[in-house]
Amino acid sequence: MKASTSTASAAKAPQKSKWFLWKYWDLYLMVLPALVFLIIFKYAPMYGIVIAFKDYNIIQGVMASKWVGLQHFQELFAFDEFTRVVRNTLLISLMKLVLGFPAPILLALLLNEIRLAAFQRTVQTVTYLPHFISWVVVGGMAVDLLSPSSGIVNKIIEAFGFEPIFFLSDERWFRWILVLSDIWKEAGWGAIVYLAALIGINEELFQAATVDGAGRFKQIWHVSLPGLTSTIVVLLLLRLGHVLDAGFEQVLVMYHPAVYDVADIIDTYVFRVGLGTMQFGLTTAAGLFKSVIGCVLLILANMLARKMGEEGVF
To answer: Which UniProt key words apply to this protein (predicted)?
Structure first.
């Protein structure tokens, strides 16, 4: 009797799935372009990972090139330059994480406190517009603003009686320029997610806090921030998965040989060596190393989040 029941349930399962797919065909059709994009540009190119284990020759192609195993990884870890670029990548990425990750949260909390709707929309628009500016343009703006001869920043410094500073050529300042320009460009865009989460918090919680005598600061601390916890955890996990992504386009636009010691990251090293010396196997090994480390960090962070009672990413 039980066997016949399980057989009937198994027969109904495919029919139910077909009915479900047919009922929501429009939603699946909307998802289709994103799936096609992922397959073409994310999954299909993954076959090229084997270049990291081959002595790649452009004429012979990927599959016909000689297999060398872990030779490229051994060479990579033996390079003094690789230690430097990993250190620079971690430092820049951690600086952006520590200083840049809280910035959208603070901005969203501040915007949420604005009671004049028109002013709130204006400020929000002004803060997220830099996200759409190319790093090439931002780099040009940085050069103009920080120029030791004509930049407005150095003009102000000179007005106070100090010597001009070569910000973009000084190793002591360059990383800070990267971090601050990244915060200026992306904080407003990141705040949109947190603002959406704040809107979803039950208004009765704020009313109850007001009745209990809580001021605006205490309401932010005891109502708004707890309501953002799950969103913060998810975005932090995703950020940790990209801890070795220190901003390829930004660094490539702004850096130059004078600051290689503090600004050369894994991505720019791969780009420069891969195109400059045609060592495609070596650079693919560096990229694979970065991806594996990022994947491991994401899994560990997700496990930690689950142990702390959060849902995590997966």
So the answer is: Cell membrane, Membrane, Transmembrane, Transmembrane helix, Transport
